[in-house]
Amino acid sequence: MATTETPRPTLSSCLTELHKELTLDDFYLGSPAVHSYAEWKTFGNGKQLAKAFKEPVSSQDSATQSNASLATSPSQPSIDNFMEQEPVVLVLVARVSTQSYFFAADGCFKQPVAKMETIKPSCLLEKPEFPIFTDDFTSVIDNITWLENLAATRGYEKQGVVKTEAGVNCIRLWHVLFAVCNSSISDKSPN
Q1: Does the residue 94 lie in any domain?
Q2: Which domain holds residue 137?
Q3: How many Å apart are CA 169 and CA 161, to the nearest integer?
Q4: How far apart are CA 172 and CA 165, in angstroms?
Q5: Residue 1 belongs to some domain of the structure
Q6: Torsion angle of alpha carbons 176, 178, 181, 184, nearest 10°?
Q7: Per-residue pLDDT reduced to its tens digit, 119-132
Q8: Label partner for 148 (CA 20 to 30 A): which of 29, 128, 139, 163?
Q9: Residues sharing a CB contact under 8 Å with residue 82, sequence separation 6 or more, in sequence order
Q10: How many domains does the chain have?
């Protein structure tokens, strides 16, 4: 009796299934509906991205809603509520740029570095090359920009992760390996 192997799924079918699962996630940045499910909440002097407990709105209404939320002052939830908030995990699909990948431990520096704290490994995330996710990348950029604008402090220059490189929108990620300490530590080695 011959055994038949189950055919392996194709890359295309796997990506289609992944895309279907992601579109069911409230915090998939490739969906315009993220505006309906996420909001910044103020806790003390900081802000946290939290789940919005409201009915979803159409994507046309979300622009009006975001402008209205800028005009209203947020209520000040207690620290107890802050600790009870379920963290929001944002999801996106992107391609790591081969031209701007500096996420190695040394930041891919080609020459000696004067100070270790200047090393900030970074990389760019670009539009993925798979058509099913390529179409979503515009929504990813729009949603991140929308979230950054909501979190921006009036009167200060907005610093965000959405960048334009060679006329193309992308997302810059970076990691600070070392922080400069302001306190001086005197050398107390024994004589």
Answers
A1: yes
A2: 11-174
A3: 10
A4: 10
A5: no
A6: -160
A7: 677 888 999 999 99
A8: 128
A9: 41, 43, 44, 48
A10: 1
